[in-house]
Amino acid sequence: MSNSQTPLELKQVRQQVLAQTQVIQNLIPPTVSYTTEGNVLVIGPEDLARLAADKLSTMANTVILANEAITSQDEAHLEAVMNAAVNSESYYNKLISVKGFLGQFQVTVENEGAGENQAATELSLVAIRKPHFDMVLDLSMSPCLNLEMLPPGYFYVGQDADKLADALEQIPDLVGEFDKPRYVKVNSDICAHNRNGVNGCNRCLNFCPADAISSIEQKIEIDPYLCHGAGSCTNACPTGAIAFDLPTPQALHSYIQKLVSRYLEQAQAAPVILFHDGAVGAEHITADLVGDIIPVELEEITVASIDHWMSALAWGARQVLILNTDATAPTLTQMLNGELILANSILDEMGQPQRISLIDTQTLTSLSDKLAISLDWPLIVPAAFTPSTKRETLYAAIDHLNEQAAATDSAIAMSNVPYGVVNVEVDKCTLCMSCVATCPTQALTDGGESPSLHFVEQDCVQCGLCETSCPENVISLTPQINLDQAARQQRQTLKEEAPFECIRCGTAFATQSMVHRMIDMIGGHSAFNANIERLKMCGDCRVKDMFEDILEDPEKQLR
């Protein structure tokens, strides 16, 4: 559908739509609190650390950990150093580790000359008689904390004068009590990380740039004090067990749907959705932005995932852009590129243009009314589905886009994606149901009273729990995106057989294959071959048979 409105009119429509549409979120969001007293540790070459500590003389305590040689032997420089930070204690111990966050930094150093049991010590206990430092200013050549997203209160400046000046300005303001949002929440009931002691999905653990996620007692835990709200964990989670809370996935989906539908109605043209972060990316969103581009601000660009991108297209957007800046952590960019390959592969298979792109700030400034996808791209019938779970929303969007395009029923083979099928070697499966017991999404189910194993592809997250827990080693996984909606949603029967009935009372108590497997495994053993028929009995009859034998021959009781 071509657009007859002028660029100025489109900008006015965009402004109206943005003004009319708000993200619905909790008015009193959950928060975490940091409390500080102003105790600062400065790490780095002694001369630079002392000069920096001198500029923090208003802080409660400033301690210096000199872990590198001085940077200059100039006499004037050395004289200035000697006269700086005269009230600050200096330590020269070897640094072992820095852990924590604003108000709670534990710094461990070597304790030379001490015995093995006291080879390490907490520097804060020695230096300021407190269990922790509140802030850390790091002037080392390489950061003492090697993270893409550093914890609040940790300032790595190296020997960059501008970064140092910025840190020295911020640190005095970080005394007191501070709140920040608790960005994400975890629903362990639907988490695929671990079931019954079996390890499964670890996708979230691989993508946190702040090292805020860990597996504790076989459960995924997120440290809210380290979390920056990058959203990479929610993006990576295949079940929705980890969900962003500001806004919730449903609230963000609803917001995007309203933006697109209202713009379509008022402008009679398909808009472009532009996701950007609320810090560096927001600085590049100006009034000069092309009128049919609707900006959507996020905490980080990875908060929106493939389900948001595909849904935006299904609801009527003609293109989705994600603004990537230099401030985006490399891990997040890596994740986005992987998701983009998947999303555009799906569009390719449907015969649609690749309408989802990761752009930089230079590309943003060069955008005009003629974007990568022409305004003449056919306006599809907007989808009417209501956002629900992450997975259901994604598949609803894919199915709608597929119906509007080639309506293909093919499957796209792709590695390392949380979509696909479970394969079972039917002849070797005993229907023990270990796989059903560990499946976190009920993609695998039993037949109730009937010995059978069923599978629904749409619910499978390829976590591997079923494969690992199978005692017969007869399960394997095939990752793929199946565009055949009916086949993907169908309840397939992977195996079924008649139950084995007790040879004594006729009660069904196990599967045929399980009993035959037991006979094959232990029936030939000398301890069992005299009573092989008992393996074919239910539990009650087996006990009765044993007591009858004892009554017939009491000496068996002694044996």
Brief summary of the model shown:
By secondary structure, the chain is α/β, with parallel strands linked by helices. The chain is 30% helix and 23% strand.
Radius of gyration: 31 Å
The strand line-up of the biggest sheet is 4-3-2-8-9
Q: In percent, how helical is the residue content?
A: 25-40%
Shape estimate: flat
Uncertain residue segments: none
Largest sheet: 5 strands, parallel
- Structural class of the secondary elements? alpha/beta
Strand content: 15-25%
Number of helices: 17
**Oligomer category:** single chain
Give the N-terminus to C-terminus distance in angstroms: 90 Å
- Whole-number mean pLDDT: 90
Q: How many β-strands, per DSSP?
A: 28
Mind sketching the topology for me?
Blueprint: H1 7-20, E1 31-36, E2 39-45, H2 46-54, E3 61-68, H3 75-82, E4 89-91, E5 95-99, E6 106-110, E7 120-122, H4 123-127, E8 135-138, E9 154-156, H5 161-170, E10 176-181, E11 184-186, E12 194-195, E13 198-199, E14 213-216, E15 219-222, H6 232-236, E16 242-244, H7 249-267, E17 272-277, E18 293-298, H8 306-314, E19 319-323, H9 330-350, E20 356-359, H10 361-366, H11 390-404, E21 411-413, E22 420-424, H12 434-438, E23 444-446, E24 452-456, H13 465-469, E25 475-482, H14 485-489, E26 491-496, E27 499-501, E28 508-511, H15 512-522, H16 539-552, H17 555-558
Parallel strand pairs: 2-3, 2-8, 3-4, 8-9, 17-18, 17-19, 19-20
Antiparallel strand pairs: 1-10, 5-6, 6-7, 11-16, 12-13, 14-15, 21-25, 22-25, 23-24, 24-26, 27-28
Helix pairs in contact: 1-7, 2-3, 8-11
